[in-house]
Write the structure tokens for this entry.
Amino acid sequence: MTPALEIANLQAWYGESHVLHGVSLAVQPGEVVALLGRNGAGRTTLLRAVMGLTGRRSGSIRIGGVESIGLPTHKIAHLGVGYCPEERGIFSSLSTEENLLLPPTLAVGQGMPVDEIYAMFPNLQERRHSQGTRRSGGEQQMLAVARILRTGARLLLLDEISEGLAPVIVQALGRMIADLKARGYTIVMVEQNFRFAAPLADRFYVVEHGQVIEAFAAAALEARMPQLHELLGV
């Protein structure tokens, strides 16, 4: 099976700062993969590098078998990739529904219909005419993910989607990820909240100093907990 995402010897820079040092990993279609690591380890840079949002890059990034290392960001998106950054990027001048409908659908598919999105996120439907940034942090996070789903992206890159949110919202986001996995979406998520990521992910990569230092499947998680406690303080 062709991996949904395959990275080999990825190097990435911000200006003169060399941030990623030979990262290699693979994500299979329909998997949920969590990138673990301390703040500043390079996990967000890894997601940004996949989208072409860093400076210089070298190595290989194959999305559905297509080499994307030399492509601009908009062409990477058209390979079926959606990126949800930590800052969410909700437009304050637009309503919830206008934010949702703003991005065009991708050539790879029609995207999730709006009625399905509202069924998944009923709070968004209730407040669809309200200004996007007047929603709670949790609702804004749901809107940021929903906006990606409407484009037709099937590979979702999620950066710290649970950060700073109330436990009830975090639980709702966990159910959302489980639902998307059941629908066949592929998800790569950066998460500082280990308790959120642990029950959702099929596999884990530990990133430190811009390198992958550990990789293991969910079945090995319990055995790896002493090591993770040492590496991450979890």
Observations:
- The radius of gyration is 17 Å.
- Residues 167-182 form the longest helix (16 residues).
